[in-house]
Design goal:
heterodimer, A: 34% helix, flat, B: alpha+beta, five-stranded antiparallel beta sheet, three-stranded antiparallel beta sheet, 10 strands
């Protein structure tokens, strides 16, 4: 995809202010529509384009995108390679939840739980799930070995926090999933070192038959700082929704948070952290609602009013008024 | 082709240009089909002679030049170019002037252009375009928007006059995106596009401009409301479904 920026051409009375995707558009708008361009795309270029489509699929829609993409590409080899590279990135970024066999629950696929590209730790059941990214399923599980699990000291904190978060999520999210992973300092044996836990909360609502899909992702990094005896908390919330019945509209909302609390026992920390998370997330939801309620009469108005300032429809039939307007404008020097 | 359109519908609306460009590279043999069915945000050029901007589209293009509705000249200059008849050009001039006032009333800024040309059925086609930058650095009067864009394309086919009446067929496409960024709600972005049609048979005595203007105003209003209430409303509903507001007490579902 080449973007060409045209500069002001000296001597002529015009300037071009925008970038045109010239090469393709020009070739296409020319009358020789049956002529293929001279430079055909390389294998790698087609693969990169395929990956781009897959990675930009909205939450829960990658398989629909994949289907259409395969039809457009009509090249299985390019598609397969692109899929092998794109699906893991997509799955981790969307934190998809996969059911583990033998009713062990779900594992959340994320960069925080990743052991290797195809293996993800579920700390709650101390198992490692082996996944097939392209098929988006968990093929089997194995028990996690000691090197993959946190120390008993860390586990105490992780477990307590996990319990509190689970309680919060089941109260606040009709279909939410959560996990707590240790991403730093997992082998710490006791006080005296820093460690970091990450709380992930994810909820997806897929209604393709109603042309509507949505997802909520929260990632909270809790940095346990030994020296200052403080927990530094950083949160990132991302909400997305896609409605596409005879049209196409997307919501993309995100917010970062910062908070802190004191380093206490595992149970006390867990309660404090969960309360902080609950507080921020509830407040964020409320402010999203406010943003939505301001839309029709405020925000949207900056794009287009519902009615002119006169509060009446435009007087199309009154052409005399226009000539008058023009005369007045000229008199007052308001004309452009 | 259907798969290509399906892909475009799923890609983020803000990335529609990149998506279309990617598709054109993959399936160049379908280029003209794709281009005629997909709308991209409007591009603008400045007509230095008239000191005004005008909007670019297929309907004022000939080869690589575009005709300004203000000076009726092609930029860059083009020999043997296509022009509307002088009668139609007069209507076009009036339409541009009136539509500019309409635009100002509803959009408090922005750029508009109207292009007309004769069609094969003794009627004509008119294209009314509006481009508005509603961001606080653009023409956003209230400073609400970090980023805001509204592109409207209205194409009306006017049939030949029969018994003092004429058929008007309007196809309107709106593309918009808006982003607010503040302390409490962080970055909040909505974007999308919608297209609808409207057909009416009206008395020619009222004047083509009046008839077309009324239809555009009506459909634009409907689309604005639809986007706001239905489309954005659905995304709002989805957010509340994902995480209901605190006031609603959630009973634990028996099967969890």
């Amino acid at each position: 995809m080449t973007n060409v920026s045209l500069e002001v051409i000296d001597g002529d009375n015009f300037s071009l202010r925008q970038t045109f995707i010239i090469e393709r558009l020009e070739a296409a708008m020319a009358d020789e529509e049956d002529e293929l361009p001279e430079t055909e795309l390389s294998y790698d270029q087609r693969k990169e384009i395929a990956k781009w489509f897959l990675l930009n699929a909205p939450a829960g829609e990658i398989n629909y995108v994949a289907k259409d993409l395969k039809a457009v590409l009509s090249d299985e080899e390019v598609y397969n390679e692109a899929a092998m590279e794109a699906f893991p990135v997509y799955n981790k970024s969307h934190m998809i939840c996969l059911e583990m066999p033998s009713r062990a629950g779900d594992v959340i696929v994320s960069s925080y739980s990743e052991i290797t590209e195809n293996e993800y730790l579920d700390p709650r059941t101390a198992q490692v799930a082996i996944v097939d990214h392209v098929k988006q399923i968990c093929t089997k599980v194995r028990p996690a070995n000691d090197e993959e699990l946190p120390s008993l000291y860390i586990e105490e904190y992780r477990y307590a926090l996990d319990a509190e978060i689970q309680r919060y999520v089941s109260e606040s999210y009709p279909k939410g999933m959560c996990a707590v992973n240790c991403v730093k300092g997992k082998d710490t044996e006791g006080p005296g070192s820093d460690f970091e836990l990450v709380v992930i909360i994810t909820a997806m609502r897929l209604s393709p038959q109603n042309f509507c899909n949505g997802s909520w992702r929260s990632v909270w990094n809790i940095d346990f700082q030994d020296e200052s005896q403080v927990l530094d908390i950083k949160g990132k919330l991302q909400v997305g929704a896609h409605y596409f019945e005879e049209g196409n509209v997307e919501l993309d909302a995100k917010k970062d948070f910062q908070d802190s609390t004191i380093f206490q026992s595992a149970d006390d920390c867990a309660m404090a952290i969960a309360n902080i998370i609950r507080h921020h997330e509830t407040e964020y939801l409320a402010s999203l609602e406010v943003a939505y309620s301001k839309l029709p009469d405020n925000t949207f108005k900056d794009l287009r009013r519902k009615l002119p300032v006169t509060r009446t429809l435009f007087p199309w039939q009154n052409t005399l008024q226009f000539s008058l307007t023009r005369e007045v404008e000229k008199e007052l020097g308001l004309g452009k | 082709m259907e798969a290509a359109l399906g892909l475009l519908r799923r890609m983020p609306p803000k990335q529609s240009e990149t998506a279309l460009s990617a598709l054109l590279s993959l399936i160049p043999q379908h280029s003209s089909d794709l281009l005629s069915q997909v709308d991209l945000p409007l591009q603008v050029l400045r007509d230095i002679e008239s000191g005004k901007d005008f909007i670019l589209c297929e309907y004022n293009r000939d080869a690589d030049s575009y005709r300004s509705p203000w000076s009726n000249k092609y930029l860059p200059p083009l020999e043997d170019a296509l022009y509307p008849s002088s009668e139609l050009r007069n209507l076009e001039v009036e339409a541009n002037d009136i539509f500019a006032i309409y635009r100002d009333q509803y959009y408090e800024g922005g750029i508009s252009s109207v292009y007309m040309w004769e069609d094969d059925n003794e009627g004509f086609v008119a294209c009314f375009l509006i481009k508005k930058d509603g961001s606080k650095s653009g023409h956003g009067r209230r400073g609400c928007l970090e980023e805001g864009a509204w592109d409207a394309i209205h194409v009306i086919q006017v049939g030949p006059e029969e018994e003092e009446m004429a058929q008007y067929c309007l196809t309107s496409t709106i593309m918009l995106s808006l982003t607010t960024d503040d302390e409490s709600s962080g970055k909040f972005g909505l974007s999308g596009s919608i297209r609808r049609q409207m057909k009416m048979e009206l008395a020619v005595a009222d004047g083509h401009l009046c008839n077309m203007g009324r239809m555009i105003e009506e459909l634009e209003g409907k689309l604005r409301n639809s986007l706001d209430q239905v489309y954005f409303g659905k995304t709002r509903e989805m957010v509340c479904t994902l995480r209901p507001p605190a006031e609603i007490v959630q009973m634990r579902l028996p099967d969890t």
